[in-house]
Specification:
single chain; Flavin_trans-like; UbiX-like; 6-stranded parallel beta sheet; carboxy-lyase activity; about 200 residues; Rossmann fold; EC 2.5.1.129; about 40% helix; prenyltransferase; alpha/beta; about 15% strand
Length: about 200
């Protein structure tokens, strides 16, 4: 049985740690992961996580693999302008795609069917092939345009999972809050995890 294949895209919205943790957890469960990072995403990774990545595919993939502590062949980084990447074609569509965090600019372009880069094209592939697409907006407050785009996408079957951590599991650290959101994302693509205590579960 082949490994499930996920695309994880990190944009310039605040909360890049969510994207990194999603990649980490997917690799732990044995999935194959293709990673996309926008230009603004690299800037936020540097500002929020102290990760100064950039350059060619290899120059990004090596530190990414090192940060994740991953040595297998299930992780692949693609540049945003690489429209020849397999994930740009419906004949090679992944099992699911997660944009985490998802900027409002990226969300609006996906909603409008814009396919100007690999991230947008990959999202378009998910829509046309009716595959799971999960967007994790990290913005507040939402304006009417944001909400209209999210409603449009939701009606198309896209899962909108805002980065809104819960508190009923009694988080004790920042990591607990991050893991709650990451767990909700994994729930949306049917990936088992133990990142937070579920409501009503025994201690």
């Amino acid at each position: 049985m082949s490994k499930r294949h996920f695309v994880v895209a990190i944009t310039g919205a605040s909360g890049s740690v969510y994207g990194l943790r999603v990649v980490e957890e997917l690799l732990k469960c044995g999935a194959r992961v293709s990673v996309l990072i926008t230009a603004a995403g690299f800037t936020v990774l540097r500002e929020e996580c102290g990760l100064s990545w950039g350059g060619t595919d290899t120059e990004v993939q090596e530190p990414l693999s090192g940060w994740l502590g991953y040595e297998g062949d299930g992780l692949r980084y693609y540049a945003s302008d690489d429209l020849f990447a397999p994930i740009a074609s419906g004949s090679s569509a992944p099992d699911a795609m997660i944009v985490v965090p998802c900027s409002m600019g990226t969300l609006s372009r996906i909603s409008c069917g814009n396919a100007g880069n690999l991230l947008e094209r990959a999202a378009d592939v998910m829509l046309k092939e009716v595959r799971p697409l999960v967007l994790v907006p990290r913005e507040t407050p939402f304006n009417a345009i944001h909400l209209e785009h999210m409603l449009k996408l939701s009606r198309l079957g896209v899962r909108i999972v805002p980065a809104m951590p819960g508190f009923y599991h009694k988080p004790q650290s920042l990591e607990d809050l991050v893991d709650f959101v990451v767990g909700k994302v994994l729930d949306s693509v049917q990936v088992e995890h133990n990142l937070f205590k579920r409501w009503g579960a025994e201690a």
